[in-house]
Amino acid sequence: MSVSTTSIPAPPDPMLIATTLQTRLGVPFKLASMEPLAGDASNRRYFRLHVEGEGSPSLILMQLADPEGFKASEEAVSGAGTVIHELPFLNVLRPLAQSGISVPRLYFFDDTAGLVYLEDLGDTTLFQAILEGGEAAIRRYYPHAIDTLIRMHVSLKPQAADPCLAFSRGFDVALLMWEFEHFMEYGVWVRQGKKPICADHEKVCRETFNAMAEYLADQPKVFTHRDYHSRNLMVHGDQLGVIDFQDALLGPATYDLASLLRDSYMALDDAFIDEMILRYREGMCAELDLATQDDMLLTDPVAFRRLFDWTSIQRNLKAAGRFVYIDQVKGNPKFLSDIPRTLGYVRRNLERYPELEPLRLALTPYVKEWQ
């Protein structure tokens, strides 16, 4: 499994964009201005197109790093043998929209130029809304985020007539172990200056990681966004718009839940997390038959919480390693400040389970926040 490191492209030609707006969007728009937007950790670039004409006052232009680059995900994926014929973002957007999930409307995809013209959902992420609105915003929006997650997990199913790429790949042991190894390489080895790791400690880590990967991979799988957190949810009127879903795959129900509630960017009160987990369990049970509820551990709060916590450990370790990778490989240090919070989640979850104490002890010499 590999990760794309394609360089960021030069800005697109305004003349090409102006022509496209006039001729390819159904309703002609005249380009007034093009505003570059702050990027994320990906190789894609985004621009806001201010236009003159009826309808939307602006559009979002997503520029791919390479018109053919969509064939390789920026995240490691399983199902490497799957032949990709369509831009994953568009392939996954379609069933999300059909299921009633609030996602950006597609206006046009210029596959030759690698430009995607999308509905503008605004600038306010859930993260920003909470920074401005505090506890009231948390109470207002997180239940909506949970309900959206339930709809995704219940409604999105494989369909032969319009196959979604997400259902051809999933969190198997190999992929989960790749993410654990990503943490060991960047979150431990690179972060501590490439100093050797004690062989005994490394052995404990890899054996425990493998056991955790087998446990997570053995769970029933649902459609999984893979990056469902406060910076990928847009406050859009009374709805939360979902973005950045192109790496969707099959995974345990707790993966997206852990991404949202153990968010690297937003610390939530433990009692509120308990409340949201209960909302998720009850919402899922209302939609599923009893046998499926039992298989997914939804009827056993202790077992489900254990699965949630172990998924959180895996997800947060991967994120911590990823943040170092983004700094060292992509030259973007903006996520380094989120590492202490992310690793703090991991330590507290490891302390909840005696069987994971050897892993905590083995990692502690290499995690400065735990010392």
Written description of the protein model:
With 371 residues, the chain is of the alpha+beta class. It folds into 2 domains: 14-119, Phosphorylase Kinase, domain 1 (2-Layer Sandwich), CATH 3.30.200; 126-370, Aminoglycoside phosphotransferase (APH), C-terminal lobe (Aminoglycoside 3'-phosphotransferase, Chain: A, domain 2, Alpha-Beta Complex), CATH 3.90.1200.10. It is built from 11 helices and 9 strands. It has helices spanning 14-23, 88-98, 126-155, 173-190, 199-217, 253-261, 270-285, 290-295, 301-330, 339-351, 357-363; strands at residues 30-36, 45-52, 58-63, 106-110, 115-119, 221-224, 233-236, 239-242, 249-252. The chain has a 5-stranded antiparallel beta sheet, with helices on one face. Strands 6-9 form a two-stranded antiparallel ribbon. A two-stranded antiparallel sheet has the order 7-8. A hairpin with a 2-residue loop joins β7 (233-236) and β8 (239-242). α3 runs antiparallel to α6 (253-261), α5 packs across α9 (301-330) and α6 packs across α9. The protein starts with 13 loop residues before the first helix and ends in an 8-residue tail after the last helix. Mean pLDDT is 91; it is low at 1-6.
